[in-house]
Amino acid sequence: MDRKKAELIATCWTTAGDVRPDHADNLSRWRLEERIEAAARAGYHGFGFWLGDLVAWREGGGDYGALRRRLIDAGLNIVELEYLSDWFAKGERRERSDAARAELFRAADALGARHAKVMPPFGGQDLPMELLAGHFTALCDEAARHDLLIAMEMIPFSDLPDLSSALELVRRADAANGGLLIDVWHVVRSGGAVADVAEVPGRFIKAVELCDADLAMRGTIAEDTMRHRRLCGEGQFDLQGFVGALGRAGYDGPYGVEILSDAFRALPLDEAARRSFDAAAPFCAIAAGTAGQ
Question: Which fold has domain 8-290?
Answer without folding.
Answer: TIM Barrel (3.20.20)
